[in-house]
Amino acid sequence: MKNNYGKQRFCAWLMKGLILQLFLLCSIFSAAGVFPSAGQGILKSKISLNVEGMKIKSILKKIEDAGTVRFAYQPNQIDVDRMVSLSIEDLPLENVLGMIFDHSVLFEERGELVVLNPSITGAKNNTIVNGRVTEENGQPAPGVNVLEKGTANGTVTDVNGEYSLNVSNGATLVFSAIGYLTKEVLVDGQLLIDVAMQSDVKQLDEVVVNAIGEKRSRDKMGVAIPVVSGNSITQSGEAGLINGLAGKAEGLIITRNGGEPGAGSYIQLRGQSTISGSVQPLIVIDGMPMFNSSFDTGGTRGVNSAFTYMTGTSSVQEQSRMNDLNPADIANVEILKGASAAALWGSRAANGVIVITTKKGANTNGKAQISYTGSVSFDVVNKMPQLQTKFGQGLNGMFKSGDASSFGDLISARSGGEDTYTGAPYVEFPDGVKHYAIVPGTASNAHGGKNSRNVYDHTNDVFGTGKTLEHSISLSGGGEKNQILVSYANTDQKGIVKANSDYKKNVVRVNFQSLIAPKLNSVINVNYSNIRSNRAPQGNNISGILLGQMRSAPDFDNSRWIGTAYAAARGVPTFNKHISYRNPIGVNPTPVFDNPLWTMFKNKSHTVINRVLGNIELKYDWTDWLTLNVNSGLDAYSEHRTDFGDAQSAASLGGSYTDQYISESQWNTNLFAVGSKKFTGDFFGSATIGFNYNALQFNNVGASATKFTVPNAPPDLTNSPAANRSPFNNASTTRTSAGFFELNGDFFNQLFVTATGRAETASTFGPEAQSLFFYPSISGAWQFTKLIGKNDILTFGKLRASYGIVGKQPSAYLNLTTYPEQIAVNHWGPQLSGNAYGAGGYGLSTQAGNPKIKPEKKHEFELGMDLRFLKDRVTLATTAYINKTTDVILSTQVAASSGFSFKTGNVGAIENKGLEFNLGANWIKRPKGISWSSNFIWSTYRNKVLDLAGADFVFLGGFNDCFSAAVKGQPLGVTWGKYWETDEKGNYLLSPHGFPQVSNNKGMIGNPNPDFRTSLGNNFSYKNITLYFLFEASVGGQIWNCTRGALINFGTSAATANQTTVSAAEAAALRTADGRTIATTAGTVRNGDGTYTFRGTIEDFGGGKVAVEQFFYRNAYSGFSVNKAYMEDATWTRLREVTLSYNLNTKSFQSFSKMKSATFAITGRNLLLWTPYSGIDPDTNLLGSNNARGLDAFQNPNTRSIILKLSLNF
Predict the structure, then answer these.
(1) What is the CATH number of the domain that holds 285?
(2) How far is Cα 947 from Cα 870, in angstroms, rounded to an integer?
């Protein structure tokens, strides 16, 4: 441990010094700006000139006479006899020369001498061609190569897809780019040439970046790396980056945490590679790792922890830090799924790596390029459980105000009109209306005093149409040496919950690239985000919005949620009293369940986030075969979070308030050298060797207060007795140092081999464990069509294989035994307030530290094949993989005599096996007509827990009776709960009355993992019109519908509203779960014809027909009793995305508007959903990014959206 600590201190000192020098160096060079000022060379010196009808050679002589500059040129190559008139004041010489020669001459500065050369050898009569290149959907196409055919004269389109090139008359322009068909256009005197590129369905193939950001040819790689373009993400209409990736890469699963603005998502690559720790991949942006955490105040530290517990559910949907980015700033996203592809990140790569590349500035010859996109989105709930509106509040078929259940009287049988009241007490509402206690029903009069037939739409009370406004603008420009891109984005989102659900985001980003010295290039990226949001309570807590909304009786008006309560006719008023269906006139001390409108307006969670993300890259071309590189950066954010529970709220009686600050930061530096050389005609090799240092810091400090002294006072931590105030502070620091290398070999231009290695040490490793861990990988690719030769059917074929080892670091301080504060964090644990001990109470942890703790280790083997057919019009990629993680970190019980209850160790194991399939095709390719392309992806995996150190199961998250667990021999995250008693053949063991019986034991009752995931995208275009749609499906898997089980119990589920009519004989024979007959059951109606009608259904569980009614619903069949009955098929198919766009870029439009193009688009998001699941959209999860999957318990629903978008380019 001491040796590791010494190494880390030295590395930290070295890195701090290096980073400081880099910042100072880049600050000095950055002062040069994008357009250098005078004093930087002759061409930058400013002159004034006023000539009329003068030959160019005379103008040059005039300039020479006025200063120290001299010009050299070949008169037979440069037209200096042309007459020019010019009047300029105080402009740089290079600008003046550009005007004189109409940008047809290149200038080279040699001391006091300026050499003039034609831009194209031997050409005097040149033409400057301008234009814009777009993708099939009309969006700008940056990075397209524009080359004059047969020459080396060319340029690249900028971020707006624009270009300018000086070419000879009669030239032909060649437009080419990765993933698109090459186009040739004859200039023929045209000054403006716009081109729409056509996809060649190569999955954006040709070039990808590796784990540390170095570019590699995809066709030479031995691993599968899907790529999603930035335009595809923005076209999706998602306000956040994560959900815009859904359905666009095989092996990638993204599950929304819910429909709240800014809510995070669960991300999974190739199954789950750990048990209790996070399965979220590492996110790398421009070579810099970034946070993607969703810190849950319920006890879980998002996705950055390697080992976490979760015993409760969060009251709000926490946000993902990945959504802090502006999607419009993204150039592309690459998915490094396999261990071999991600091995350069060592112990942070067990779950794969998502590599984000942002947009850069471009050489625009000093012209500013402006791009603007504005959109408005309308969001509504996409699916809700069905509720009944036939029966009122009460039990046994009789109305009873304030009852928990809705097994009351038949609403349609009431008389109508005003209700009959009992008198005081009563409540008076703000509009003057008074409500008194209503006379309850009886056996002889089921309705009692409830006469009104009114029923209420509780869903409409809570949910409305959400709206999102987004604006994004970017400015880019520069010259040959300096380029800059500045962007700003604003998002203003109002959620579907009608109050206190919003999300406001402002993002500013700057990219600056500079040739700061010969052979020395620099790139600076700076991103600042500010987010403010209010979040609506959710989930299975008694102040959750959906819980109160769905359990409310259909004949109770939730819109009257606050009033003045009077316990007697002339009693003392209680102002601002909480009114709910369990407390309808406000006289009870507790509402039991919150009125959802009270929750919306009174219980508030507010967040303010400030984040800085930036890095500096330096690249020095030491020789023509060796470069030296530095990439150093910082990701830091601070979050101020407040959570307020009103004193009358069910979950916080007396009041609760928490005020906390959460901050995380990480410094990361990569130093590496890259060498490449052709050794013989048949062998080319390259090597990378480098060093990585990373320092992570986390801090959470704050306090909570309960039992307010002044109940209705504004939120204040001092508004509570000292004994009810609890401060807290949690902090951690993790440091990692590593050396790494990558070796690439190219044999005969058809066999390609890559080997990598990373040797790593970290502060989280145990002092008695080995101090250094090595993560190797090797991959190979064979382009066998190079050997057998191409043909018109099979134009490309490659076999690939790879093997790699990656790891997962332990969480901070698992190698130590700690003394935590003795303060309860949830209602399952004992409470001991630190304030009772003056300065705060601390006690020995029940969990022993492990000095031998080490990283989890994942081995993965991958085989695959890439094929392209019919001149690359059809592509096929298949991959098979198997991975196994050993030394999985788990907490196990130890003997009480040790003084501890648990000890964390490397004792578990888990494996995944999977197949992936990607098929793409260009069915029709007509540049001036109809084009049609498709992409189909399919993936499946099988996961198995191999070892739990002897434990029957490991709790992952959920509730006491039903939860997600790791079970040996089963997939990770199976559902564990109560089930029906059965015999060996699966038949129910029935009660004496013929009903299933709930077992006293618990066991595995379901598996949330899908059988496979698939999606199909199609893109149609005709001239300037483009239509794109994407279908996505998840087939198989199960979800526990806790919501339905609870609604069955309370009688608000539509499934409880069935009425059955039987004969008198049947009524006397049919038994209920408690042994009564239908004829003698309360609530049964005897009809005039002698038949009987009861609320329920007739079922046969194997022992004959029985009556399923209230008693069975509220007891054995209740969701609080049996869990297995509420496991449902989680299969879904959806129209994930559909976009129709029109790109206006005609010459007449450009002349009229002074714009280069305008694109109009309408997008639908999740418009259609097909699923057998009876709850909300099954593509969600109660516990967010936690490993506990397949749990639905009153979380807020997902949305479907319509987005209108306008893009303008100047």
Answers:
(1) 2.170.130.10
(2) 48
Burial of 1136 (0-12, 13-18, 19+ CB in 10 A): buried
Do 255 and 347 lie in a common domain? yes
Q: What is the dihedral of CA 459, 460, 461, 462, to 10 degrees?
A: 60
Do 1019 and 934 contact (CB within 8 A), yes or no? yes
Shared domain for 250 and 188, answered yes or no, is: no
CA dihedral 73, 75, 76, 78 (to 10 degrees): 70
Partner residues linked to 996 by β-bridges: 990
What is the Cα Rg of the chain in Å?
35
The pair of structure tokens assigned to 1200 is 């479907």
Residue 522 and residue 30: Cα distance in Å, rounded?
9
Q: Give the CA distances from residue 90 to residues 39, 93, 101, 773, in Å, rounded to whole numbers and listed in that order.
A: 14, 9, 18, 63
- List pLDDT tens digits, range 295-327: 655 433 332 222 222 333 445 556 678 889 999
Buried b (16+ CB within 10 A) or exposed e, 108-131: eeeeeebebebbbeebeebbebeb
Residues 185 and 263 grouped into a single domain: no
Q: Do 236 and 283 sit in the same domain of this protein?
A: yes
Q: How would residue 598 be classed by pLDDT, with cut points 50, 70 and 90?
A: very high
- The amino acid that residue 527 corresponds to is N
Per-residue 3-state assignment (H helix, E strand, C coil) for 909-961:
EEEEEEEEEEEEEEEECCCCCEEEEEEEEEEEEEEEEEEECCCCEEEEEECCC
Query: Is-above-0.85 flag for pTM?
Result: no
- Measured CA to CA, the distance from residue 407 to residue 705 in angstroms comes to 39
Give the DSSP H/E element, type plus range, for residue 98. helix 93-100
> Around Cβ 988, how many Cβ atoms within 10 Å?
16
Residue 834: closest CA among 606, 646, 825, 422 = 825
Vertex 1054, ends 1053 and 1057: CA angle to 5°? Answer: 105
**Counting Cβ atoms within 10 Å, is residue 533 exposed (0-12), middle (13-18) or buried (19+)?**
buried
Residues 241 and 323 in one domain: yes
| Residue 551 phi, psi (nearest 5) | -85, -15
The Cα-based distances of 314 to 47, 548, 759, 1008, 1193 in angstroms read 67, 16, 38, 20, 11
Tell me the residue range of the domain where 130 lies.
Answer: 126-196
Express each pLDDT in 247-258 by its tens digit: 999 999 988 877
Give the distance from CA 520 to its chain's centroid: 36
Q: Mark whether 54 and 91 lie in a shared domain.
A: yes
Q: What is the dihedral of CA 70, 74, 80, 81, to 10 degrees?
A: 130
Indicate the number of domains in the chain.
4
Give 1100: exposed, middle or buried? Use CB within 10 Å, 0-12, 13-18, 19+: exposed
| Residue 984 within a domain | no
Angle separating helix axes 93-100 and 56-66, nearest 10 degrees: 170
Same domain, 1151 and 1107: no
**Of the residues 84, 118, 152, the one at which a domain ends:** 118
Query: What is the C-alpha separation between 499 and 561, in angstroms, rounded?
Result: 14
Query: 296 and 171, same structural domain?
Result: no
Question: Which whole-number Å values give the CA distances from 808 to 21, 762, 890, 955, 976, in the listed order?
Answer: 32, 11, 13, 20, 27
Task: State whether residue 619 is helix, strand or coil.
Answer: strand
pLDDT tens for residues 672-719? Answer: 999 988 887 788 899 999 999 999 999 999 999 999 999 989 999 999
E strands, 646-655, are none
Q: pLDDT for 179-205, tens place per residue?
A: 677 888 888 878 888 888 876 544 444
Tell me the residue ranges of DSSP E strands in 536-579.
562-566, 573-578
Residues of 697-720 as b/e, b for ≥16 C-beta within 10 angstroms? bbebebebbbbbeeeeeebeeebb
pLDDT, position 6: 44
Residue carrying structure tokens 């600008």: 95
3-state secondary structure of 788: helix
